[in-house]
Design goal:
The protein is mainly alpha-helical and 167 residues long. α4 packs across α5. It has 9 helices and no strands. The chain starts with 13 loop residues before the first helix and ends with a helix. The chain is elongated and about 50 Å long.
Length: 167
Amino acid sequence: MTAGTRSRPAAPDAHLRELPPWLTAEADVAGRMVTLSYRVACSTGRSRRESKRLLDRLLPALAEAGRPRPVGEWTDPGRRARARLVKALRAELTPEVDRAVLAAALRDAVLLDELALLPPRQRFALWATAVARRSTDDLIAVTGWTPRQVSKLLQAALRTVALHARP
């Protein structure tokens, strides 16, 4: 073989640089709620058409996302809207879907939504280690962060997700 015909193996960190588009973009509250309900609908075995019908029935719950925050309440509007939507999804799907399947679908959708709310560096660190299953050493090599920075980012991300990601 000549030198120019050999195929080079992909860099071991190439997949860490290609994040899902939803992970790098900021989504508005309504967009996040549509995505969450669609994920739950698909995870519970609904077709695209059935998912759209479900979303059309749940739009009133989404419309409240823009309501002003009650005095003394610190929760951000997106998390309040998500809690209302999860409650509506649970009420709508419980009679038709197995409880364990629905609970898993809600849990996964809420976790992904909470992951999307993290600051970019925390989001990347958590995605790379928990979802892409890369070691912290790989993350350090790819990003140039120190071990202490990676540790702090992961601790903060896990703390935030654990605190807010309850369906």
